[in-house]
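Hey L., structure's done. Input below.
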Amino acid sequence: MTRGLAAAFVVVLVGVSVAHADTSSDTRFTWSSNEFASYCGFESATYLRADRDWFTDRNYSDKWHETSEAKLKTCSDCYRVADVAKLGPAVRVVRLIMTSESGDWFHEITYCFDSNDKLRAASAIFNCAWGWSYVTVYAFHEGGLKLQDSRWQNLETGKQISRPETADEMKDHWSEVPVYKLFSQFPFAKLIAK
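Output:
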C-alpha cells in the first residue's frame, strides 16, 4: 500500500468511525448503538451530547496522558485514543479507538460501567480499508463478554453483507475485544478527576 493511499485510508477510517459516535447523521451503526445503550440503561442521544475527557498514549506507548478533542484533530501519530463520558450518576461510557499506522484498519470499542464502576456491556466496530466493517454488541455476564449480536457491513453504506473473503486476514484485530471488568482497570482511569 503506498504512503499516499495509506494516508487517505486513515482519513476515511477516522472520519467514518468518529462520525459514528459523535453525530446523529451517520446511521450506519444506529442498530448497534441502540442495542448497546439498551444494555447499559441510557439513550444513544444522551451519549452523543455528553461532555468527555480525552486521553491518548500516541503510538501505543502505554504512557497515557490527558488531551483534548481539538489537539487530537491535529495529532499525526495518535493511533490509540480514549474518551470517557459520565452519563448521570449511574453510567460511565468509555470509548477506546485504535488504528494502524498504515491506515488499513480502525477499531472502536465502547464499554459502559454502572454506578459501582462494573462493566455492563461493550460494543465494537472494526472498519477495514477493504471496504467492510464488523460490528458486535456484547453483554457482560458471568465474568465475561457474551456476544449478543454481530454483523458484517459495507463500510460506506452500512448495509449488511456476507462475511468478506478478506476477513480472516484481519481476524487478529477484529476478534480481539479486551475485557475491563472495572473502570479502574483502564490505564488512563487514574487521570480522571474525581
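DSSP finds five helices and nine strands in the chain. Residues 1-22 have pLDDT under 50 and may be disordered.

-- N.
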